[in-house]
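Good morning,

Both structures are done.
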Amino acid sequence: MTSWDYDLVVLGAGSGGIRAARLAAQAGQRVAVVEEQRVGGTCVLRGCVPKKLLVMGAHYAEDLEDMRGYGWDVDGARFDWGRLIAAKNAELQRLESLYNRILNDNNVTLLPGRGRLADPHTVETGARTVTAERILIATGGRPVMPPVPGIEHAITSNEALDLMHLPRRAAIVGGGYIAVEFAGLFNALGVQVTEILRGDTVLRGFDTDVRASLAEEMTRKGIDLRCESVVRSIAKTETGFSLLLGDDETVETDIVLYATGRRPNTDGLGLEEAGVKLDANGAVVVDPFSATSVPSIFAVGDVTDRMNLTPVALAEARALIDTLYRGRPTAMTYDNIATAVFSMPPVATVGLTEVEARDRFGAVHVYMSRFRPMRHTLSGREERTMMKMLVDPVTDRVLGIHMMGADAPEIIQGFAVALTCGATKAQVDATLGIHPTAAEELVTMRDRRPDPTPEAED
């Protein structure tokens, strides 16, 4: 019988890697985790957590404005970006300590350094070499930037989370999650924001009504959206940077933030040399059970580029450990996974978009509502909320729910349970709402939107 140093070695101490390591150790396996940076991964240290903390901090700017409509006068309020960054960093340090404790309490060995596969059962970490019966790749992803002249002057979200000073002007390139979130938080804090994107509007891949509604609100708040535009070059100036766009217009700015995509962290890991198949984007190719082309090697999370969300990585890790060590072969399912964008206002969605629903089911019943939330009847703010529900006319099953507006992520999380359970429109209609709330609108929508004409569909 072959003697291994460990039963499982995990490359990467992010959400998926830590979850897999902990569960494997609890199942009686000898586990080590290799990590070259801080423990916690993208979500905890460079993504969702710090980004949402900054967004929450920015929201207080709007809250202070809205308070006047409710009888409050706030004199002398000042914002200190440095204090917010320091508070955010302290929270990240606390979370990193917690993750280290999780590994330690479960007798998981942490091996500092960059891991590289020497063969399908051997990992080199620089200081030492270890063997394992199985290896899990959970190295996540990283921001990438295009080869634009002057791109060395740009920063990514990684650096934006640690800016020492709040800029007066910011140019943000991209139209996805990260771009709209930073655009919203900077704008709320008084930064002059220009967002430049190739597409016709923000959040490509989301429901069209969500995209249109968010773009409208972003513009209303003063964000300069430059759609169907590209950056040709970036130049350093005496006062900041100058961006030359495809239409020969220029944008003057103090920082240039690129949020145009991410790439799986597979470079230099020795994966292809070990026989692991990668796709054209460098992602590890896996089957529904997270197995790679090499029997002893597995992969979960963003490094597989399946659905790059933290809860998905956690679920993939649990499914993998159930499969390998608990005698419960479990394949991941990616239906009805809710997601949120912490833009201002936020977006949340679960299920199919209207385009996806029509492609899959043909005819679809659409229920939609746009309204000014109760909060703003006194605040005076013109911000609107949008809700949309898609229903299969044959089975009456709810296919998708989409929302833009305050508390959207909290509201949609609850409705995600209903979709997972196969809720029908009749069941939603039979549910009494909590009054007065925005959420009750989803259980009181009765009027269908007219079906599009053939000309409109074309």
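Second structure follows.
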Amino acid sequence: MSGAAPPDPPPVLLPGLAHVELRDPLFISDLHLNVGAPETLKRFLRFCAEDAVAHAELVILGDLFEYWIGDDTLDDEGDAVSRGVASALRGLVAHGVRVYVMHGNRDLLLGAGFLRATGAQLLADPAVADIGGRELLLAHGDAWCTQDVEYMRFRASVRQEATQRQFLAGSRATRLAFMGAARLQSEAGKRAKAMEIMDVTPSVVDEALRASGLRLLIHGHTHRPALHRFALDGAPAERWVLPDWDFDAQPPRGGAIVVKAGRLTRVRLDS
């Protein structure tokens, strides 16, 4: 007689793809989907149905959700956000679009259950993408915010296996309460810090590019969309920063990066 299936490993132990070949990707990050942002959720669902479906791949570089307390969220029939997003992603996969997702700092507990429910594949952070023979580095970006010492200490803690197991073993109510308190503390901390402290450290980005042997990078996290051109060891390099989404704000904002004629191109999304 076979026993019960073993529990899923904590997300930190899930193997992520370190290298992926892409044909016609659409890159997004930092949507921070949650029940308090209904217009942003609606725009994402429309984005899946009208925009992403026209591409070969959708690549989500972290913080798809404002928070994720565990994959059992998908079992809650009243959770329209997680279930709606999972359904939209599953629909894309059924249509033939490959969906890749990377852990962000807000949804680092996306686990095997989420991957099964959506058909998405997990990307390592960082990962290397090959697009038509041209390689580039993909990352969420928070690992490079090394000037924010307090955050880096917190980041190291929540990515420990023991920490994740302990959190996921708690009741849903306990996890929700903890996440709510953590979000309030995070927002208060941001107001007390200089913006430069919460941005990536250029020298650390340089080291990441050197280690990968690449000179092209896409990341999110900072909510500072831009194209940075610079020289690295005498060679030209580019750092593309994805925008965050907020279609509940005035004016609404959101965007993506696509590849056109072999070149990265920023796309602003309408409301």
